[in-house]
Each structure stands twice: as structure tokens, then as C-alpha cells.
Amino acid sequence: MASLDFDDSGERAVEMALADATRFVLKPQREGGGHNVYGADVRDALLRMRHGRERMAYILMERILPPLVKGYVVRPGASVPPPLVDLVSELGIFGVIIGTKDKIYSNKQVGHMLRTKLADANEGGVAAGLGALDSPLLVDL
């Protein structure tokens, strides 16, 4: 992850992304999601805002390419049976920490969420209908 500030580090990040934009995602530092910039659009966006303050509102992250799995997406009104498709999943772990500035009373994992989306979809918001909540099946190999 790199900031796009106007310093040596920010300039190196811009040059790196311009050289191989498909490896990166531009993420705005704001709530709500769905405003990320991917692929060739990363290069176009950086060229457009390279010398403007707008670029400091983004961070540059190397794109994570998770392993693909085959699966079925069941949706209202879709074909039955659904086609077998390539999917990717993202596991989120929820934690809670309770403490003061001097002492931690509790720090533990309290839950998880697995989001799954079509492998060729950049965004995967469940609320936007682009992804789905899923259930992990963990096995001991």
C-alpha cells in the first residue's frame, strides 16, 4: 500500500503504477466502497491527476489475485440450474478489543464473513447485488 503524496515515495508509487497499471488498484479514502479504479483506468486516472491535489485522496494498493474456485451462484430469476462459474472469495475476520490507554482487558476474534463474487467482477458489494454472503467449509488436510 502506498500513499500518493507529493514526496519521493508518492512519486515512486505513481511511476510504478504507470509502468504496470494492471497490478494495482486506486482506492479513494472515503466510505461506502464501489469507487475503486482498476486496470488501464488506473493509468488514465494517474495521468489525469498526476500533478493535482486530487491524487492525495487515493491510496495505491497492489491487486490481490486470489485463487479461483468453481461454484454456483443462485439468484432470483436466474436460470435453473445455475451455470458452473469461476468465483473468488474474501474472508473478513471481526475482532473486539476492550481496554484503556494503559491496559487491554479483552482482545479476541468474535466472528467472520465470507463474501463471494464472480471472478471477473472488480467490485463485489453484497448490498449492490454484485456479491453474495457465503459459508466457509474448513478442512484439515
Automatic annotation (TrEMBL):
Which top EC class is named for this enzyme in its record?
ligase
Coiled-coil spans in chain: none
Q: Extract the InterPro entries matched here.
A: Glutathione_synthase (IPR005615), Glutathione_synthase_C_euk (IPR014709)
Q: Which SUPFAM superfamilies does this one have?
A: Glutathione synthetase ATP-binding domain-like
UniProt keyword list: ATP-binding, Glutathione biosynthesis, Ligase, Magnesium, Metal-binding, Nucleotide-binding
Highest taxon of source: Eukaryota
Listed pathway(s)? Sulfur metabolism; glutathione biosynthesis; glutathione from L-cysteine and L-glutamate: step 2/2
What are the protein's GO molecular function terms? ATP binding; glutathione binding; glutathione synthase activity; metal ion binding
Give me the Gene Ontology terms describing cellular component.
cytosol
Q: Which cofactor does it need?
A: Mg(2+)
Q: What are its E.C. numbers?
A: 6.3.2.3
Report the family membership: Belongs to the eukaryotic GSH synthase family.
Q: What is this protein called?
A: glutathione synthase
The species this protein was found in? Plutella xylostella
Phylogenetic lineage: Eukaryota, Metazoa, Ecdysozoa, Arthropoda, Hexapoda
